[in-house]
Write a structure and sequence with these properties.
The chain is about 90% helix and about 0% strand. By secondary structure, it is mainly α. The longest helix is centred in the middle third of the chain and has 133 residues. It is rod-shaped, with a radius of gyration of 63 Å.
Length: about 180
C-alpha cells in the first residue's frame, strides 16, 4: 500500500478531535460575541435603508402633491388673470361708451344752443326787417300822399304793409 505523500493528508484521529474541539470553541465564541453584534448591525442597517426608502417615497409623494398643487395654483392664477383682463376690458369699453355718450350729449346740447341762438337772431332780424319795412312804408306813404298820418292811421298802414309781405321764405330757412 501506498502511503500518502503529504503528512497533511494523513488521517490522525487525535489531531482530528483537537481540530473539532477548537472549531466548536471558536464557533461558540464567534456565535456569542461576533455573530450577534454583526447580525444586529446588519438588521439596523437594513432598517435604516428601509426607513430611508420609505422617507424617500414619502418625500416623492409629497413632491408630487406639491407639484399638483402648484399646477392648480398656476391654473387658478391664469384663470383669475383672464377674468381680471376681461373685467378691465369690459370696464374700459363701458368708460369709452360713456365718454362717447357724454361727447354726443355735449355735441347735441351745443347744437341745440346754436339752433336756439340762430332762431333768436332770425326772430330779431325779422322784427328789425318789419320795423324797417314799416318805416319805409310810412315814408313812402307820406311822400305819395303828401300828408302826415296820425297814430291810428300809422298803425293800420303798418299792419296792412306787413300783412302783404311774405316772410314765409325767411321762416322756412330758419326751420
Amino acid at each position: 500500500m501506498l502511503l500518502a505523500a503529504s503528512p497533511l493528508i494523513d488521517v490522525v484521529p487525535g489531531l482530528m478531535i483537537w481540530t473539532l474541539v477548537c472549531f466548536a470553541i471558536t464557533f461558540f465564541v464567534l456565535r456569542k460575541y461576533a455573530f450577534g453584534p454583526i447580525q444586529k448591525m446588519i438588521d439596523e442597517r437594513r432598517d435604516r435603508i428601509r426607513s430611508s426608502i420609505e422617507e424617500a417615497e414619502h418625500a416623492r409623494d409629497e413632491a408630487r402633491r406639491l407639484l399638483e398643487e402648484h399646477k392648480q395654483l398656476i391654473g387658478q392664477a391664469k384663470s383669475e388673470a383672464g377674468a381680471i383682463l376681461a373685467e378691465s376690458r369690459k370696464v374700459a369699453e363701458s368708460q369709452r361708451e360713456r365718454a362717447k355718450e357724454e361727447a354726443e350729449a355735449d355735441r347735441q346740447r351745443r347744437l341745440e344752443e346754436t339752433r336756439k341762438q340762430i332762431d333768436a337772431e332770425t326772430v330779431r332780424a325779422l322784427e328789425q326787417i318789419r320795423a324797417e319795412v314799416a318805416d319805409l312804408a310810412l315814408l313812402a306813404t307820406a311822400k305819395v300822399t303828401g300828408k302826415v298820418l296820425d297814430r291810428d292811421d300809422h298803425r293800420k298802414l303798418i299792419e296792412d304793409a306787413i300783412g302783404d309781405l311774405d316772410f314765409s321764405a325767411l321762416e322756412s330757412d330758419r326751420v
